[in-house]
């Protein structure tokens, strides 16, 4: 299943729906993670907050391919995308294991194929390097086999890289 998480405005909704099996709009109409870890322990993979991200752990956890479309913010995700990713911590468990000779949380849903990030807006070389490193580490931590980061200067290029 291909899941697209994006911070784009409504004119892009139909494109996202045509390209992905599930679409998560990081529109900011949800609460940020409260850090209660209830999605880890009390009600696994489900957030207690009753908003559009209540099931985000299950949706992302079942994705073979996660495509994140985000505005560059100093070499990182936009705040709306970062909040959605924070709310998906329940894709893992509080238990730890070794993956690639590194300590990581045990995956609740198993391994995934591709963590792809499409970054729009201006980005310096340093910001691009930071973004690539962060995406690679996010992919490893969330059990994705491969990370791919693409930088586009104009949203007109988006359809070609989705």
Describe this protein with a few key phrases.
162 residues; Rossmann fold; alpha/beta; two-stranded antiparallel ribbon
Secondary-structure map with pairings?
Layout: E1 2-6, H1 13-19, E2 22-25, H2 56-61, E3 65-71, H3 79-86, E4 92-99, E5 102-107, E6 112-120, H4 125-141, E7 144-152, H5 158-161
Parallel strand pairs: 1-2, 1-3, 3-6, 6-7
Antiparallel strand pairs: 4-5
Plain-language structure description:
The chain has 5 helices and 7 strands. It has about 160 residues and is of the alpha/beta class. The chain has one domain (about 1-160): Rossmann fold (3-Layer(aba) Sandwich), CATH 3.40.50.360. The strands form 2 sheets. A 5-stranded parallel β-sheet has the order 2-1-3-6-7, sandwiched between helices. Strands 4-5 form a two-stranded antiparallel ribbon. The radius of gyration is 15 Å and the shape is globular. The two termini are about 15 Å apart. The model has no long low-confidence stretch (mean pLDDT about 95).
Envelope shape? globular
Rg for CA atoms: 15 Å
Write down the overall mean pLDDT.
94
Percentage of residues assigned to helices: 25-40%
CATH-wise, what's the superfamily?
Flavodoxin domain
Could you say what the CATH architecture is? 3-Layer(aba) Sandwich
State the end-to-end distance: 14 Å
Order of helices and strands: EHEHEHEEEHEH
CATH topology (level 3) name: Rossmann fold
């Amino acid at each position: 299943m291909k899941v697209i998480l994006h911070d784009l405005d409504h004119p892009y909704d139909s494109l996202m729906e045509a390209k992905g099996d599930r679409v998560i709009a990081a529109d900011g109409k949800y609460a940020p993670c409260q850090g209660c870890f209830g999605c880890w322990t009390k009600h696994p993979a489900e957030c207690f907050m009753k908003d559009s991200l209540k099931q985000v752990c299950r949706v992302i956890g079942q994705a073979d391919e996660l495509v994140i479309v985000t505005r560059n913010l100093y070499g990182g995700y936009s705040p709306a995308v970062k909040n959605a990713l924070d709310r998906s911590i329940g894709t893992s468990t509080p238990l730890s294991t070794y993956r690639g000779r590194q300590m990581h949380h045990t995956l609740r849903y198993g391994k995934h194929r591709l963590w792809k990030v499409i970054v729009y807006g201006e980005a310096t070389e340093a910001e691009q390097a930071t973004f690539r490193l962060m995406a690679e580490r996010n992919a490893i931590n969330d059990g994705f086999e491969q990370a791919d980061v693409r930088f586009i200067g104009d949203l007109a290029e988006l359809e070609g890289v989705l």
